[in-house]
Amino acid sequence: MSPAPTEPPLSSCVVVDLSTGIPGAYCTKLLADGGAEVIKVEPPQGDPLRGWSASGATIRPGDDGALFSFLACSKESVVGDPELVRGLLESADVAVWSPGSPLSPQEIHRDHPHLVVTSITPFGLEGPWRDRAATEFTLQAWSGGIVGLGRGAPDRAPVHVGGRVGDWVSGAYAAAATMAVRLRAPCIGELVDLSMLEAHVLSLTYHPVTFRDMLDRPWQQTRRLNMPGVATAKDGLVALGCATAQQFFDLCAMVGHPEWIDEKSPLSITERATERASVIQDWIVARTVAEIRELATAFRIPNSAVVNGANAPAMDHFEARQSFLPNPRDGFLQPAPPFRLEPARLRPPVPAPRLGEHTESRLGAARRATRKKDTGLAFSDLRVLDMTAFWAGPSCTQVLALLGAEVIHLESTSRPDGTRLIAGVPPTVDQWWERSPIFAGLNSDKKSLTLDFRTEQGRDLLRRLIPTCDVIVENYTPRVLDQLGLDYEAVRALRPDMIMVRMPGFGLDGPWRDNAAFAFVIEDASGLTWLTGHPERNPVEPYSIGDPNAGVHALNGLLLALEHRRRTGEGVLVEAAMVDAALNVAAEQVIEYSAYGALLERAGNRGPRAAPQNLYLTADPDEFGRPDSWVAIAVATDEQWEALRDALDRPGWASDPELSTAEGRHAHHDALDARLAAWCRERGADEIVDRLWPAGVPVGKVLQPHRQAELEQLRFRGFFEEIDHPVSGRARYSTFPARLSRSPGPRRTRPAPLLGEHNHELLTELGLTAQEITALEADGVIGRAPTR
């Protein structure tokens, strides 16, 4: 095996960045962190992000906004005419494109067939919605994400997830798709057509179409606040959550009411917590945040401080792990990369370029590169041991399965994957554990093996299985594998070139290392919760983005590790802490506070860029017969404001000259909301969309998430595919948010496995006889049904 190179995994990859906005910038930042040479092509006036501040801070001429300085670390900048751009493309390996570039992605793909061309658009390059106006806010509406998990109090409008998270996660998916295509065929070009709407569906909703198909009911019909959720303590805000019945029972004991524990109650955890909410709140308000967190941690109840841009860097865990680093050019604090590699290396951040800083040097360097033939990675030759559960880990390994890898999902009969248990199917139903839409949506095209690690036989079989695998992905708390004696060094002793991806909630070290972590806790701890909700109330946990965001970032780290091993033959440990991924997509909060002293605050359904932006009640009842049907409208540009005026037949109230600028519209937002609310209240949602969207105004229906498959754009792109399941029947499943030109893209071909379905197949491969396998089943080491 050759020694590890000093260069990061993508050091031989040249990327031309033709994008604007957060999605493309974050995509190319992840590639630059991985070592790619990223050349950002800008117009003479520069990328609009150079002048951006979410808090409205003044950016002086010649300076750059702090967000740009973060996203452009380790990149070059050229101001290029078409001839220079074509030369750059000819000598590059990847081009990242978003609307606004003078060249189309199809044209780039045609004229430069060696390139991987990654296009990032709201709806995709083809289909009936391909040219429709959209913002991140209206995409959340169309995706079903605004009401996807019942977020918000029922007496108010639902709330979107703050911080433009859909933009960030779209960039993460674009980076992963780009790397996967290059790994598969390093010297062959491809057009990667990423849809931000589809990335929103995967990140903000929890397989609602599959849920409706399999169980004939929606995931939720009403909005609710999570209990206890974010609560007011004696000295500030604290977040507590219960994702399992045991955690609720522990909460009951912690607040001094063990008599509430009833294992036979027909009510859900949320319903039981809501019943006791006032007593729980009284207990919380009488104690400090530190007291509550110390007790909750001792009881192993998920908990966190409610983090924001001001207090995040001072959190002891983040200080210990150096989760924030000074920007190399401007000195403000920014998140460290979202994952760590060992012994492979990420590139240390290099100062962002000034506008056109590298134009002159690139003029002489833009020539056709000599490309050597390079062997790609056949994902079908990859065996992955999937030691994950719930949402974050399985969403990472699911993509590998869709790409063709053999993924072995490891469970035990005493502790099956938790998503098998949360569908609300009663134990009286035959094979109830095989009827979970969530498990089915996250685990298709995988195999299932059950092993009880508490037994010496189970541990021995696991050690025999590991050398047959190329990759291990796990998301236990760190102490679990430590107790099994299966940390990375132990695994490397079994297979030296192993890639091991560890996805702990808070990392492998630091004061919060062993804290329980679920999506909502990660959101609380990173600032994602802080920006979600109405300003006059406590923030609301998104309860969605923390897990899938961790999954796609772990996937990016894993793909970098695969590239490192492809080049060197060397194994890699990838530490992909869930909270590190969340801190990166919430980066703007710490950046704005550190650079400008501005604390970003939640603003209901308004946002820092568009005005007017809000949800407006329509004349329709919703599908459940309630007056709860909404549309999302977001005017992001002066041109869109003119389009809105035209669509409304230029009413007198819209003729004020102050409203012709974004500054004026922000200043008069309350009045604009009142006018638009009155106009929308007299019309149905379809009428509003049909009136505004063809005129060029970003608008979206606040979709019930189980209706996603009815959207004509998603139907056109084949985003949902039908699969038969042997127990739960036929259902529709979401796929991957990008279409690929040389193949239809990652697809689902087999249903999720039955518990222990592949025990005999996989154990036979390890050399066990039929009699030995039967004995293991009799001893409870393996099995096909939960034991409790």
TrEMBL record:
Keywords of the record: Transferase
Thylakoid found in the keyword field: no
Keyword Phosphoprotein listed: no
Domain of life: Bacteria
Alphabetized GO MF terms: transferase activity
Region listing for Disordered, in residue ranges: 347-367
InterPro entries from the UniProt entry: CoA-transferase_III_domain, CoA-Trfase_fam_III, CoA-Trfase_III_dom3_sf, CoA-Trfase_III_dom_1_sf
Region forming the signal peptide: none
One Pfam assignment: CoA_transf_3
PANTHER family: SUCCINATE--HYDROXYMETHYLGLUTARATE COA-TRANSFERASE (PTHR48207:SF3)
The protein's name: CoA transferase
